[in-house]
Amino acid sequence: MHRYRFILFRPLQFLPVLFGISVITFVLVRLIPGDPARILLGTRATPTAIANIRAQYGLDEPMWVQYLYFLKNLGAGEMGKSTLYKIDVLRLIATRIEPTLALVATGVVLALLIAVPFAAISARRQGTLADHAVRVVSTAGIGFPSFWLGAMLIILFSVKLDWLPVSGYGETLGEKLTHLVLPGLTIALSLSAVLTRSLRAGMVAGLGSDIATAARARGMPEGVVFWRHVVPNALVPTVNLLAVNIGWLIGGTVVVESVFAIPGLGQLMVRGIFSRDYMVVQGVALAFACATVLINFAADIITVALDPRVEM
Amino acid sequence: MLVAGLGILAAFVALALLAPWAAPYDPIAQDGAARLLPPSLLHPFGTDNFGRDVLSRVIWGARIDLQIAVIGVVFPFLIGTVVGTLAGFFGGWIDAVFMRVIDVVLAFPFLVLMLAIIAILGPGLSSFYIAMALVGWVSYARLIRAQILVLKTQDFAVAAASLGFSRARIMFRHLLPNALAGSLVFVMSDAVLVLLNGAAISYLGLGVQPPIAEWGVMVAEAQGFMTQAWWITLFPGLAIVVLAFGFSLTGDALADLMGVRE
């Protein structure tokens, strides 16, 4: 069990990072020129509201005291009010988590469904035309802008073929699933380009490994050797790769949500920027950063669970 | 591979430099009689909803998007190189402070932190460059620092120190040139990310502003006309894909040439 001991101690290492995240998000909003009370409340705030917010955030105190007020409010689950939606930022964020999570999950699942077969073809037929084709396409795929890919998928599958909805999210589970296909595919196509390269390298190494040679020596058919011994081992580093790329993946969902008008966190942030809803921008940035830290931690735990050789 | 990659990059540089002569039409001149025309001999990439020639706008867009890729890489590269060299060479508390800052910046999703900074500075290309410099340097700093940590213990560095050379001279004349190889390969893959980010931020309406012809802006403007005119969306995106492919090919070829593995 000592391999899992890092689960107890690692959170302590998060503290400086979480401190840094809170300082950056605090400073960002305070850097906006103008009266902070008006920035937080919008231009049409009443004098009482301004007096209240001055007290709540300690706006007449020195900057470092204001930061402590900010922390105290955060600790109480108080992230301010959205000037656009007129509700608590924390509650607003909570309602927007589901579409973003569903989008990321769809994207990752579809990306694996695309990347594993292509990496397999490429690794098992090294040096053939198919291998070269997969490598060229995955190199080019990294440079596909997600906003353009999404728009092209809409033109093809929604406008020309009329198979899937153009945009939006829907209410029922069935509606949500059909609305998630194209945005999920947009993310998956970009992501699978990254995954294919790494999976191919893992599979090539696995095919030449002692495990594979030993399995072949026992008379195991090549197909079984590949799918039972090579592929699972090649998938382990993928967990880490996904975690390393989670920031990039979240950035992708921010753009894709805007393309497909999906009411997730990314769309909330982009609209917040346009409507100068700074508490929302601050809250979403904070939420995304904390999620990134947690996901990396979770990936470490999964890697330790999957691979008995790994020590953290 | 190197020839193909550099060829693509050279072609885009040529297009950008020669845009006034290469583009058949004025990129922002509107023509009410030529709205939403499909690709034809007269307009090879068709026209948009203002009757502007899409080919000409794609060619002029090369100027802006190449500039985004270059400026968006240069400042993070310079800042990251200096920070990474100092942190790796001096170690101790300087290193510790910089590494903590890097951890925090890396905790934020790249695009999210950029958007948050742009939210404060206000939309525009210069805000994009500032945000890029503030966020992008960390990858370079980490790369260079790791190289310097290894290099500074090697014989040539120890020899330089025992000859009494100044620390600045050892850092920037002896260690840094040897540390740069890896980051030059990274520059190419970073250029792809910067190009995609710059275009995406412009697509969102927070970077380059219309009517300037920039590929991300063009895709954004095309979105209202997706049902009628696929060509306004297709061609600017293809330009991004091809330019990004040029950077990727060049990067892969350089990595093979220099024996660097990322």
What does this structure look like?
The complex is a heterodimer of chains A (312) and B (262). With 312 residues, chain A is mainly α. Chain A folds into two domains: 2-75, no CATH class; 97-306, MetI-like (MetI-like fold, Orthogonal Bundle), CATH 1.10.3720. Chain A contains 13 helices and no strands. The longest helix of chain A is centred in the middle third of the chain and has 36 residues, at 89-124. Chain A is globular. The mean pLDDT of chain A is 86. Chain B has 262 residues and is an all-alpha fold. Chain B is built from ten helices and no strands. Chain B has helices at 2-17, 19-22, 54-90, 92-107, 110-121, 125-151, 155-162, 167-203, 215-222, 230-258. In chain B, helix 1 (2-17) crosses helix 10 (230-258). The radius of gyration of chain B is 22 Å and the shape is elongated. Chain B starts with a helix and ends with a helix. Chains A and B meet through helix 1, helix 7, helix 11, helix 12 and helix 13 of A and helix 4, helix 5, helix 8, helix 9 and helix 10 of B.
N/C terminus separation of chain A = 12 Å
What portion of the residues of chain A fall into strands of 2 or more residues?
A: under 5%
If helices are DSSP runs of H or I spanning 4 or more residues, what is the number of helices of chain B?
10
- Note the main sheet of chain B: none
Report the portion of residues of chain B in β strands: under 5%
**What is the class of the largest domain in chain A in the CATH system?**
Mainly Alpha
Oligomerization: heterodimer
Question: Mean of residue pLDDT of chain A?
Answer: 86
Helix content of chain A: over 70%
